[in-house]
Batch of 2 targets.
Target 1
Amino acid sequence: MIKCAGCQEKEASRLECPKCKKLGIAGSFFCTQDCFKKYWNDHKVIHDIINIAAKAEEEKSATIPPNMRNYAFTGTIRPVYPLSPYREVPKHIQRPDYADDPRGVSACEMAERRTIQVCTPQEIEGIRKVCRLSRDVLDIIASHVRPGITTDELDRICHEECIKRDAYPSPLNYNRFPKSVCTSINEVICHGIPDQRPLVEGDIINLDVSLYHGGFHGDVNGTYPVGKVDEESAELMATTKRSMEAAIAICKPGVAYRDIGNKIEEIIKPKGYGIVRRYTGHGIHHLFHCLPNIAHYGGSKTPGKMEVGHVFTIEPMINLGTENLTHWKDDWTAVTLDGRRSAQFEETILITENGAEILTRYSKNKKKKKKTAGGQAANGVADGDDTPEGAATPTAAQAAQGVESLKVE
Amino acid sequence: MDEVPELVPAADDPYARPRIPLTLLTGYLGAGKSTLLEYILTADHGYRIAVCMNDFGDTTDIEAKSLTLCDPSTGEQSTSFLSLPNGCLCCSVKDLGIAAIEEMVVNQRDKVDWVMVELTGVADPGPIAKSFWENEEMGDLVLDGIVCVVDSKNFLKQLDDNRPGEINEAQRQLAASDVILLNKVDLVDAAQLDKVRSRVTAINPTLRIHDTVKGNMPLDRIFNLHAYSKGKFDTVHDHPSHVNSISTVLIPLPRLTPTQWSRLNLFLENVLWTGKLDGVDINVLRTKGLIHLDDGREMVLQGVMDIFEIKQSSEPDEAAPGKIVFIGRGVQDLKPALISFVDL
């Protein structure tokens, strides 16, 4: 017997509360119209509750773009729209070929040669310059990372810092990426689009900065804690960075490209983390992305060996849980399939006679710079001496230290 | 006595992505690819097969390509156009066509057991096979093998089609394939068929050959080949090379010492990754091998064009002789070079 929703005693008839029916609340059957009337004041509260809940839900999703409102997000991060308007780059700054293409396609990249380019000393000088500018900009943006700041604000800072350096922010309009930097928070693996979401204490955020200057691209990224982060995240970030450093340390002429992934796997596997397979490191020079492809996982079939003059990135993306990923319906944002966190570190490196020079890392202390130029660059890795001295502000130095400082906490 | 039940594995990782096998179908226009596909889509074989029939080969234009699915329980077919998946414009996926097929198959995972991709008649399957095989590492499709359909009546003519300085498509298709279906055997006499067979074997002796009429044959002849994962393949002997022609060289291998093993790896890297032997261009289209090591391990070598992979065999077979096979142009020179470099 179904009891009357009013008196809770008599058997309900087939008469239903019309308002409940409209709101989609099932089972509001009453015995008689009189009974319904008698209990109306008590009953109608249920309508208000549902209305309030629906409104709250609507408000919450108002900032999610309509095509993603029914999307099954894997974690807790949501896009917060609208995006800010397109940021212009002044006309006097040299633009890559895709900057003004309606589809953001780089014609040069499409016509890419099938071999890895050996860069000339002049080209290397140009790449070195833009790589250092990229590092500078990354350090400056990182110094602004704090709870409350939006990723759009970080994008504005990146954009302006690029312009100050006569550089075009490489991500802008690359295959129609709408912003000047990639901001990837927590379960976002890479290619997060800066939006109106304020950073929250305990988040981890990856800032992926690429500049185009003098006809060359530079590419560098790092993952930073927002305030104090949990131990699990700190450990993930530290291990990810360690795996990148170890991979850079094996680079020298004659080493097979697939050994990079083997090295990273050696460090990551014992931790039980997942190594992202979908995204790889890449060659970089006058093209933003080109050969070689750098697999970050072990046992890849990647052909080829390093030669003096090769320039490429190493940028492992490491997940706390599954290596598998999916994408938001915005063409870009890659997220972990289980919604757990992901960290990434990246440098652009050059193969030299003796090893590798990390082009996106340099000491601003002149004495040290000289030593680096003397061909001992690879030692910089072993020293762990990667903190730019005399960086813009003390917070910049702190931020650049990133992971190291976390260990102290 | 009670029978002890088999232990069952713990619940699957909910975030694991099941992998779906894929077969590439190559062959000249008119060889009978479409008839074969028609048969595959309609025959009662129990597989739920997704077929990409639009002459795959062009990596940039995916707009006009579609995928046809058949449901064996109802016999119903459905066709939909491929679309570019989310987030694939970035540096990870090398081939948008592959990305599109993968996306579509993955979205209908519970309806698909097998994927077949038909290549254009003029396509060289080598680079396409290479792309699919490379993509395997990061994707959800596993390359099972390449099937070539040929018209027994016209095939010899196609093989002899002379292209000054280059290898014609018919030869490239033979070199890249794992199974060849000699179609239209009802239209040729026994002598002609023998000629076709011996030419096929001369170019690629690792091929499995089947005769068909109108593409009709059991699917197990073209499915579950594991051509890119297993080390078992039949070879007879190597054949002399013709100018502008593909041939196969077979190099028997003894058990290798650790030094020989590392020299062999170095040899493969030097030759395959650079495409040169002692500074001279060499065109290897396919590499296969079974390698026994001193310490008892058995290794399987697979390669397409410049990429190769060596994995430890999961089902070692002491009786299977160690050997390496190179298929391509000018590969005869590899034999003495390898023997001396590895110091066999």
Target 2
Amino acid sequence: MPIHTVKSYEDELALLDKKIAQMGGLAEHNLAQAFDALQRRDPRQAEMVVVADQAIDLLERDIEEQVIEMIARRQPLANDLRHVMAALKITSDLERIGDLAKNIAKRAGAIAEVSHPKPVISGLGRMVELALKQLKSVLDAYADHDAERAIEVWRDDQQIDAMYNSLFRELLTYMMEDPRNIGLSTHLLFGAKNLERVGDHTTNIAETVHYLVRGEPITDDRPKGDDTSLTLVTKHE
Amino acid sequence: MEHQIVQDASIAEVPVAGPTITARDVNVFYGEKQALFDVSVDINRNSVTSFIGPSGCGKSTFLRCINRMNDTIPICRVTGDIRLDGENIYDTDLDVVELRARVGMVFQKPNPFPKSIYENVAYGPRIHGLTRSKKELDELVESCLEKAGLLKEVHDRLDEPGTGLSGGQQQRLCIARAIATRPEVILMDEPCSALDPIATAKVEELMDELKANYTIIIVTHSMQQAARVSQRTAFFHLGKLVEVGDTRQIFTNPRNKRTQDYITGRFG
């Protein structure tokens, strides 16, 4: 693409991308750290994630301010308009991902004294891995303006949903086996739900990237993987 | 509580009853130099169409083909077909003076006649014999000034010279003068480039109101103005019509790369 006649405009757009990349990197890092804290039951590490989330919040505000100023001063059009609007939407998805990571970390403190059921933790571990892979992939799609890759991320979200379904069932079974497991299981269930939400925000970003590149929304049908809201487990099961 | 989804009328598409103007393969030459190449476009009735493009791209040349203003330039030659309501405006039998009454024009620099405000508006209807009595003419002048949003400001000084008005008022006087001959089409060649933002807003508001009864074409160098006032936008470059489409589409998702580069300020 030829560059802007006004060079400072070009610089501002590049700066916006740099901030998004930085914010995305922080969100990835915090999510990985949060799970690590949960897995190792390390309240101190959890506290570090909570503190680190402030940097994400600051970046969100910074990006918002920059976008508002660019709209006021540059009145961006066409692909530039889609660019600044995409940055504005992505920054809010990343901020939410940061919050979800923080929430996972906080649960590490709550369950620090209890021993974990191994299969559930390794299930959560796989979910985190996939969520991180998806997040990295969508941030690359943004940086490279790669709509195909965005569609891929958008489709693959159903894998996270499927993992959430199976963890949900596993945790319910665990709770039914022994009511003393309920406290721990509930925390882990919320952790899993948070990861499922991270997947949804990643999907939002994928949709935004697609609009940024192609100028139109993704029109494919995506199979929905999460049916837990339709599930009720009874004793007869 | 029941919520109703209300469609915003200002955003909704204006229903189109066929194009007013159809141009096919229009070429324009100034002597040896070709200024327009095979321009084909339909201009929708009762809506605003904006022509955008860098200086010298041919947008004003094309605008001037529509009321045969180019006839006044001896070396200028126009080929192709331009129809107003199906009628070929380059037909040898066509009365050019009558055509220019049907296709009014407003220029970049406000150019009222060195006459009174009243006479500026009354001049056209008088030479075209559109009114039968002084009373009728008075009423027409008043209604045109009203439609141009100027009457309130000038009603007590119609005998004062039009040139004594402010720039924005002068431009609205020129619009009143243009609509006095009851045209179907109003051509505007950068009508706001000499006006301050408030006067510009008044002219833009006026265009929005006038489009109910007139077909308006505006040439503008302001992307924001084209985006604000028009329903359709045509982009010209190097004498060719590069892209024409819904204004919303042109400014959010142009199909052509040259259009995108131009409207985002990336032109080499």
